[in-house]
Known about the structure:
Mean pLDDT of chain A: 86
Strand content of chain B: 5-15%
Distance between the termini of chain B: 25 Å
Helix content of chain A: 55-70%
Low-confidence stretches of chain B: none
Oligomer: heterodimer
Mean pLDDT of chain B: 90
Number of strands of chain B: 3
Order of helices and strands of chain B: HHEEEHHH
Radius of gyration of chain A: 20 Å
Helix content of chain B: over 70%
Order of helices and strands of chain A: HHEEEHHHHH
Number of domains of chain B: 1
Number of strands of chain A: 3
Strand content of chain A: 5-15%
Distance between the termini of chain A: 17 Å
Number of domains of chain A: 1
Structural class of chain A: mainly alpha
Shape of chain A: elongated
Strand order of the largest sheet of chain B: 1-2-3
Radius of gyration of chain B: 18 Å
Number of helices of chain A: 7
Low-confidence stretches of chain A: none
Largest sheet of chain A: 3 strands, antiparallel
Amino acid sequence: MSLWLVRVVPLLALLYALWWLAGIEQSVLAAIKVVMESIGPQVFSTVQSVAHSIEGGWKITTTIRLVDDQSAVAVLTVAPVFIKKSVIWIPAALALVLGSTPKKKTKSVGLALLLCGCASVTLALICLAAHLAVVINGTAAMLDDDVLPLPPDFPLNVSPYPLWYFHLVTFAAYLGALIAPLAMPAIIWVVTCHKEIRAMISTPKRPVF
Amino acid sequence: MKQSTKYLLLFLFYAITGFALQVTPFVDKNIVAPFILGTTAAASTLIDLFGGSVELFGDILRSPANGFAVKVDNGCSGLEAVILICASVLAFQTSWKMRLIGALACSATVIGINLIRIISLFYIGQHSLEWFEWAHLYAWDILIMVDGVVAVLLWIRYAISHTHQSA
């Protein structure tokens, strides 16, 4: 296991250096935004478009009319920190996978990249869904108020989501923002490298799993 | 079902149950809030112990020298990492006594590292807000994740060798 750590720690440093210095983070965020632009309005009937906001996050234009002004539609912003949370763990996941597979890297890394992509898009969708739920229901999430913004202080001409959906999606956003950056690298590592992990923790006389 | 799949499913079950309990108002008020206050007080005591200067206001650490303050919030207390660690320990098939030892030992490791994290962020923020953001958002999350993974792997190795010796 010490050999594994010796491989993983420099890989973490190297991949995160590349992540920032080579602008990979910005490219990945741009790719996620392109995906959200195309699937956002398909998944959520209330979403009209997804664009860049001035702060670097997303500006979501909805189809929801304001009660006081029927010509205006609700626009919400997703802060950059929430969007970053859906991708910042990717180099860590890749470092764990690369550090565990000295041979036959291509298959494991390919699978890890695929899982990272799917998980990132899912987390971004959850983030968007939770922001929409707070706006549509006009209710603050029961959870930590730093994870989701407060609802608007003006009424909207839209039926609120069922309460169970509201709590489910805001809970998922909480998991996505606070837990996923910690858990996702380890989960992807276990899924892609379970044979290597088994070898790492097994003793000669007592195999694991 | 493969053992590794069973482990992953059990891990997800324990983790999601733990987080669902964590966000209930009762647990938030009676466990999470006191835990955050305790963590902040422990960080303040450690800073004092090593000759640093800090003022403690509940869950806020403030520098008397320049007024910079950090608030230990949900997600900063280390409780989330503790839940993940406990889930990964409980999901492993061994005796309950061994799981209890693992959960306590691994949680203590993560709580200890998180105290260092809070203290380091308190000092980093006084020098550069940009570096504070970097350390807060990226560096410490990764270090705690690696620490948790290593702690659990070491415990699994210990649990296996102990079970083997007992058998």
